[in-house]
Amino acid sequence: MKNKIYWIFAILIPAAISVAFSFNNFSTPKENSTAMDCKETPTTTPASEFEPTIINKNSAPSKAPKGMVWIPGGEFSMGSNIEDESLCSIKGVTKDASPVHRVYVDGYFMDETEVTNEEYAKFVNATGYITVAEQKPTQEEFPGVPTENLIAGSAVFSPTTAAVNLNDFIQWWSYVGGTDWKHPLGPESSIKGKEKYPVVQITYEDAVAYAKWAGKRLPTEAEWEFAARGGKTGNLYAWGNTLKPDGKFQANIYQGHFPIKDGDTGEDGFKGIAPTAQFKPNAFGLYDMAGNVWEWVNDWYSPSYYTELSKYGKTTRNPQGPDTYDVQNDPEKKRVHRGGSFLCTDQYCTRYMVGTRGKGEIRSAANHLGFRCVKSI
Length: 377
Hints:
Blueprint: H1 2-16, E1 54-55, E2 68-71, E3 74-78, E4 101-105, E5 108-111, H2 117-127, E6 153-157, E7 173-177, H3 204-213, H4 221-229, E8 294-300, H5 305-310, E9 316-317, E10 334-338, E11 358-361, E12 369-370, E13 374-376
Parallel strand pairs: 4-9, 8-12
Antiparallel strand pairs: 1-3, 2-5, 3-4, 5-13, 6-7, 8-10, 10-11
């Protein structure tokens, strides 16, 4: 059995942990960098790239559905002017989030929080839906792998016993058989008592299935960022430009030595994942638009998409993302993730910065990946 688990781990984990580590496309971290010695502040380009946000004046067309808030839409500057992020300030890490460009989005309703275990359970109970992590992988997906080695499961963060070189994320992730949304950390784990926590171990199609059942949809990347910015112009974070205003963290992220066991000090109040809505909402009334869990959005991922949008210097109305995934540079079908997670740290992945991006293979999940929905008017 050990050999079987290792085989499936070796085959599946690179896809599962494509989630949010897009720096691999652009740079290689310094050799021998560890969380102990790799803690620097990102460098920004001039903030003048951000032009004022113009919020639509129209009010909500109706009362907001339960658990949702009205996002009026409008025109804003989308993207990031960060030249680098953590990993010893290596230039180009956030290249896929630039250049800053003008976008317009229509108004919509958006979930106040990430979809919770409680909400997802209602969907599953009503429909009998079986998530991707609960399904045995097929030989069509993984040609050449013996049938007995194809085991249903998913990726779980597995901290290291000591400081490690940050070049290889496989060191702190494991493919664990029997892992799914009801057992997010492995077959012996449970969501009992965690009804208000965000549901995780969700693939793109799992999120879409829930959204359709709920009469909603996944947000576009532009809708997600407009909402996260809360009507503000060019802020570094969903709450402002200071990571810890008045000395207090505003999101559930990782403090301490990453990725060491018990390395998260929990200075923000939580070690690991947290219930939803534990921090102040942003200006639109949305919770957890940074940290806690990554969120699927509907757009296909392409590292050059922002360059294409900005090519003509015009405002793009309601962009839907590329027509397809980045076939030329990446054979895996990836969609965009937004917001960062409880594993994001200034030592490794500061994607809780509001304009930055993540990505993930569409049939892969992990214990730091969830979603929220929107509803068109």
